[in-house]
Amino acid sequence: MLKRAVVALVGALLLFGVSTGNARASGLFESNIVGKQVGNQEIAGISPDAAAPWVVAGGEVEISENGKLELHVGGLLLLDGTIGPVLTVFASLVCQQTVLTGAPTNEVVASTLDVPLSAAGDAEIDEVITLPSSCVAPIVLIRIRMLDIGFGPVDIEDLGLPPPWIAASGF
After folding, report:
1. What value does the mean pLDDT of the chain take?
2. Burial of 101 from C-beta contacts in 10 A (0-12 / 13-18 / 19+)
3. Is residue 69 within 8 Å of residue 129, measured between CB atoms?
4. Are 61 and 33 within 8 A, CB to CB?
5. Residue from 167, 89, 97 nearest 131 by CA
6. pLDDT at 86
7. Label partner for 106 (CA 20 to 30 A): which of 16, 22, 58, 162?
8. Is 3 helix (H, G, I), strand (E, B) or coil?
9. Looking at residue 99, what is its pLDDT?
10. Element spanning 56, H or E
11. How confident is the model at residue 4, as a pLDDT?
C-alpha cells in the first residue's frame, strides 16, 4: 500500500511538476559573468582591453530560445575601482562555426546596442538578437563602445580600434 502511494506521488510530481518558489525559467543559455584577467587572450579575433584586468562583483547573462538576451552586471570595474574612460558597453554572442574548409572557427554571430556603464560598473542589457540555427561553445562578451578621453564621448571604432572585450560569460 505504501509503495503504491509513493509511486502515485512520484507520478503526480512528474506529471504536474513541483514549484520550489525560486525556480528560474529555463533559458537556452545561462552563465555568470567574469571580468577580463591578466593577459591578452583573443576570443573570435577580438582582443581584450589591454589597459588592465577588470573585476566583476556579480553578473549573469541569459539567452532565451526567441533570442532575448538579458545581461545584468554589477561592479564591472578596473582594479583601481573605476570604469576608467568607458561610457557604454554592448554584448556580442560568439559561436563556434564550421567554415568551408571544415575547420571550426569562433565568430561573432550577433551583437546588441550599447548601454551606459554606470560609475559603479553596473549595466543592464535587455534586447532580442537574431540567433543562428546552432551555436556550439557559446560565449557572451561584454565590449567597450563609447569612451570619454578628455574631449567628449567618442566611439572607439572612430579611433580606428575594434571594440575590445572587458568581461565574458564563464566562471
Report:
1. 83
2. exposed
3. yes
4. yes
5. 97
6. 96
7. 58
8. helix
9. 65
10. none
11. 43
CA distances from 136 to 20, 38, 47, 98 (A): 31, 26, 21, 10
95, 107, 109 from 65: Cα distances, Å = 15, 20, 15
Q: Could you tell me how far CA 170 lies from the centroid of its own chain?
A: 9
CB atoms within 10 A of CB 62: 19
CA–CA gap between residue 92 and residue 167 (Å, rounded): 11
**Do 147 and 166 touch, CB atoms closer than 8 A?**
no
Domain ranges of the chain: 26-169
**Looking at the predicted structure, is the pLDDT value of residue 25 above 70?**
no
Phi/psi of residue 162, each to 5°?
Answer: -75, 145
Q: How far apart are CA 42 and CA 49, in angstroms?
A: 10
